[in-house]
């Protein structure tokens, strides 16, 4: 038995949800470029869950269901108020999502219909939790979700209490479309491993949030912004990046386990970053990002991944840096739940093997002889 480090190249499941073939990302067979251009986030959520684009009435029903499910149990909001004010935002989200299960009477109902209802509640309630957490830690009251608006609109509204600008809603919506699913990435795999024991959907999503939090995965978008802030201006980019590369340090937001010729989502986010920079009259983050890309791609051949330009996009939308990864979760919960439902449909326990590298032929030594 020989281990493959990081399971690179191992095909661990079949799935009909999303694919990356020859560098092309599709959701249910539709190219991400097509979806980024034309689809709303809710259409993508429907596509991931049901395997087809919704017609008008199906989409209206999904909007209505998400709207009706967006309010979060008051007990969970009260718990958020008890978290230390400096709690890591992904730790808060992980804990609150785990707590949602305690107040859901269907939490352990494993029927497909109940699991779909829980997927809707999870999709609807993650934005409410993230926005409530962001306000509570600033000493403000959470804002109740608004009925009849999109997930993107509602999230921005609940964050600030103001009706967001259409351009901001459009930008966030496109970012959510781009982040919704990604084959067997680490957090989706974590979700599938958890529910393959026939554990519940809340346990699966809680595992996934824990996996997304790390800086090698979803946490990279916050690390990118921390880097941009640390560098400060375009004129300091070259020295900073050269020094990092000389020290063999990783540049966050670059590289990918699967894409070696570039992440197809990055160009959409780069374009959004430029457009939002122009609109907000602050091209600094975009200009720095372009310079970093030139240096890292030029010297290492590494291309930006989805996390790189999303950092400057969210900053232009005036979203605090430590909400970037929770926003990733707000989008990716659509993919996680689609994969969880698919796992339940055709389940088998996921239990690989380890190549043992420890000592052999050891004997128990009585404690007085050690
Ligand atoms: C949504 C997402 O999860 S997208 C990924 C987000 N993560 C990041 O942006 C973090 C930075 N990137 C990375 O750490 C990696 O590229 C990963 C984790 C994304 C992929 O990792 P792996 O497939 O395991 O590649 P691995 O880390 O082994 O890198 C291969 C080589 O490229 C180098 N490399 C990979 N990424 C980077 C980077 N961002 N900066 C500098 N060097 C890098 C590694 O140091 C390694 O070099 P070596 O062979 O000389 O040791
Ligand atoms: O697929 C991966 O390994 C990481 C990624 O880009 C994602 O989850 O969107």
TrEMBL record:
The keyword Transferase applies. Belongs to the citrate synthase family. One of its GO terms (molecular function) is citrate synthase activity. Keywords: Acyltransferase, Transferase, Tricarboxylic acid cycle. One of its GO terms (cellular component) is cytosol. This is Citrate synthase. Pathway: Carbohydrate metabolism; tricarboxylic acid cycle; isocitrate from oxaloacetate: step 1/2. It comes from the Bacteria. CDD domains: BSuCS-II_like. The active site is at 256, 307. NCBIfam families: cit_synth_II, PRK14034.1. The keyword Amino-acid biosynthesis does not apply. Signal peptide: none annotated. InterPro entries: 2-MeCitrate/Citrate_synth_II, Citrate_synth-like_lrg_a-sub, Citrate_synth-like_sm_a-sub, Citrate_synthase, Citrate_synthase_AS, Citrate_synthase_bac-typ, Citrate_synthase_sf. GO terms for biological process: carbohydrate metabolic process; tricarboxylic acid cycle. It catalyses: oxaloacetate + acetyl-CoA + H2O = citrate + CoA + H(+).
């Amino acid at each position: 038995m020989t281990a493959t480090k990081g399971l690179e190249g191992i095909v661990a499941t079949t799935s009909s949800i999303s694919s990356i073939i020859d560098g092309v990302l599709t959701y249910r067979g539709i190219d991400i470029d097509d979806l980024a251009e034309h689809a709303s986030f809710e259409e993508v959520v429907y596509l991931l869950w049901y395997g087809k684009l919704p017609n008008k009435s199906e989409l209206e029903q999904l909007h209505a269901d998400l709207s009706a499910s967006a309010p979060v149990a008051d007990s969970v909001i009260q718990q958020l108020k008890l978290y230390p004010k400096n709690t890591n935002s992904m730790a808060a989200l992980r804990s609150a999502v785990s707590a949602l299960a305690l107040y859901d009477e269907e939490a352990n109902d494993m029927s497909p219909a109940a699991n779909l209802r829980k997927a809707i509640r999870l999709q609807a309630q993650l934005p409410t939790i993230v926005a409530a957490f962001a306000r509570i830690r600033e000493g403000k009251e959470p804002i109740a979700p608004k009925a009849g608006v999109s997930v993107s609109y509602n999230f921005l509204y609940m964050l600030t209490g103001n009706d967001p600008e259409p351009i901001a809603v459009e930008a966030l919506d496109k970012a959510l479309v781009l982040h919704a699913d990604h084959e067997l990435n680490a957090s989706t795999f974590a979700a599938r491993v958890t529910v393959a024991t026939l554990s519940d959907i809340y346990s699966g999503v809680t595992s996934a949030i824990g996996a997304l939090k790390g800086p090698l995965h979803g946490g990279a978008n916050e690390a990118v912004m921390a880097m941009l802030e640390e560098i400060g201006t375009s004129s300091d980019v070259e020295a900073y990046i050269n020094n990092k590369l000389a020290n063999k340090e990783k540049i966050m937001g670059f590289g990918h386990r699967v894409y070696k010729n570039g992440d197809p989502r990055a160009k959409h986010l780069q374009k959004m970053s430029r457009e939002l920079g122009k609109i907000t009259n602050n091209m600094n983050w975009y200009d720095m990002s372009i310079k970093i890309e030139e240096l890292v791609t030029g010297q290492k051949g590494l291309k930006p991944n989805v996390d790189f330009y999303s950092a400057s996009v969210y900053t232009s939308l005036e979203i605090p840096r430590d909400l970037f990864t929770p926003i990733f979760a707000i989008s990716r919960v659509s993919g996680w739940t689609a994969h969880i439902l698919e796992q339940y449909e055709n389940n088998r326990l996921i239990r690989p093997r380890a190549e043992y590298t420890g000592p052999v032929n050891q004997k128990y030594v009585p404690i007085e002889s050690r």
